[in-house]
Amino acid sequence: MDDEERRELEAQLQVARELLASLDPHLIRQVTDAAKAATEWLRMLNETKASIELERDFLPKLAAEGWLISPSGPIDQPERLSVLFEKKAYKRLIGT
After folding, report:
1. Segment holding 91, helix H or strand E
2. Residues 30, 38: contact at Cβ < 8 Å?
3. Predicted TM-score of the model (pTM)
4. Angle in degrees, CA 93, 74, 67, rounded to 5
5. Could you tell me if 78 and 69 are in contact, meaning their C-beta atoms sit under 8 angstroms apart?
């Protein structure tokens, strides 16, 4: 990096510092909190999507074996049973 590039970068950095100094810290905190909340919502939506896809794929396989899931069961029941199903461990549960 030559001296001219360094001076240009320092000038850009100074502009950025001035811009940040002019912003309200409360606004920055609100934007940061909103970004964290959006990230959490996206994580939850992705988990829900994965759960729905698993249920659409897995529950018909389970029903073909004569098993049904109770709506009053634990919310993670399909996920737990799908692990057993994939390992063929469900056959030990039903005695076959």
Report:
1. helix 90-94
2. no
3. 0.55
4. 40
5. yes
Token digits for 28? 């920055």
Cα 20 to Cα 14, 31, 36, 72, distances in angstroms: 10, 13, 20, 52
Tokens 């461990």 found at: 89
pLDDT tens, residue by residue, 13-62: 999 888 888 888 888 889 899 999 999 999 999 999 988 888 888 888 87
Mapping DSSP to helix (H, G, I), strand (E, B) and coil, where does residue 2 land? coil
Q: Where are the domains of the chain?
A: 24-94
| Tokens 């850009």, residue located | 12
CA distance 47 to 45: 5
